Amino acid sequence: MEHVRTFIHYMKPYRREILLGTVALLLTDLVGLVIPWLIKQVIDLLPNDPAQSVLMQYAGWLLLAALVQGLARYGWRRHLFGPSRKMEVDIFNHLFQHFLTLDRRFYQKHEIGDLMSRATNDLRAVKDFLGLGLLVVLDAVVVIIGCFSLMIYINPKLTLYVLMPLPIISVLFFTFIRAISIRHQSIQENLSRITSMVQENLVGIRVLHAFVQEKNEIRRFDRLNRDHIDKNMSLAKMFGLFTPSLVFVIGIAAMITLWIGGKQVIDGTITLGSFVAFNSYLMMLSWPMMAIGYVINLWQKGVTAMRRIQHILDAQSSLIKADTEEREADIRGDLEITGLTFSYPNNEAKALDGIDLNIEAGTSVAFIGMIGAGKSTLMQLIPRMYDALPGSLLLDGKPLCDIPATALRRHIGYVEQEPFLFSTTIRNNIALARPEATDEEIEAMVRCVHLTPDLERFPQGLDTVVGERGVSVSGGQKQRIALARALIRKPRILILDDAFSSLDVETESIILKNIRSSITGTTTLIVTHRLSLARQVDRVVVLGDGKILEEGAHERLMQQDGVYRRIYTNQALAREMEILLQ
Q: What distances in angstroms separate CA 255 from CA 161, 261, 271, 282, one per listed residue?
């Protein structure tokens, strides 16, 4: 019930519809209980040779009852099933909104396919439980209470005999419910694994083709599917025992009724009409009794799904919550780093170890170093993708964790080495950072990142759809589109994390020159492996094993016999060799 209460508040906006549906359902059940009673009255009248008008009157009542029951059944189907689908939409919207508030730590712990499965398959199970499941429970309760009340009224002694086999149902219920719950949990988790595998294979389809791994993946997928079938068959076998057992118990009750009730009719203890009505109510009980198995299935599936969805809704961003509310911060771009030490979650190794660095607003700094030196880690801490220890990272003299993440990121342009493009047009991908940007501003950014020559080769120019993850454009074009997206925001801090890796040196130089002329006063942080770029920035920081090895202007570092000078010399020699070989 703890998990059910979480979803009850989604019903509140539709309480009027649910109330109407509940009234219609109760009316359907009550009219259904009246029909056998009318038939009882007619059967008891027949020996007395009733008048034709009396029989027509009862026929009219039966017809009216059938019409009312039909209309009421339409009412509960509309007003109970309808809200369940609306609740599904509301929960999905809330879930998607919550997804967007979670940080990178959460997504590192969960597979995307599993999250997709929870947002689709599990949500559908919740909808079925909140709609059909609760409806069946209410229907069963009303019918059981109504039928037993009328059966007791007709013949209490016969009702007592009929109740004798019913405790078996309780034994069956508590015997099977635990096993059913475990099997549902296993099925939902296996379905998540299937969804994850499909998503992963579709994303990495080019790698599979390149390494000719299609057959291996087909075999893996076949094993997962067969495992899924086996788990579902195990659940089906469980219900294959449970449901017939319930029907068998009802059959025993019917046998008792025919045996004892038949003798009472012969003895004249009860009338034939009462005996027929009693059996009609007993048969009406067969549906709610069999529905117990169906409800258990919906219940366990729904609660399992609720538990899995609740796990997401309970997850919170690990970022330190700022004391101030989100507002448009006035950021200049001064960065002060003092004793910065950072380790990734579940990893004791220090990605950064005692970094001390001051970066004045409007300056440009290049970060170089071997792979794993901590360059990208440092870049990710500035827009609060992860949180550093409080006080170790200041922006304009204020602790970074005191600035709300969304307010901070509005002033930061971030371009990664492998940028993500959405499956829409180039124009929309660029305007993502600033939807209100005009066509002139977008075109100016296109010129700034030297993308105009490429667009001339595209038949639809800026309105060319790039495909999922930018599959239809090259790596260099993808990086430049992402760069234009970051620049159109006119950020106070621009972070380029190896954002020129897919570009040639000449294009890189043109773009950097355009950036410096188009946006002034911006603090620019560049992670690069090309030291030719280091000559165009104000300062260079050399990182190694999470520590600062050297820092200073290019000319000063070249005067020292250090890491920077050795790397620069090696790259210069390699470049000269390439020119000679050409």
A: 11, 10, 19, 11
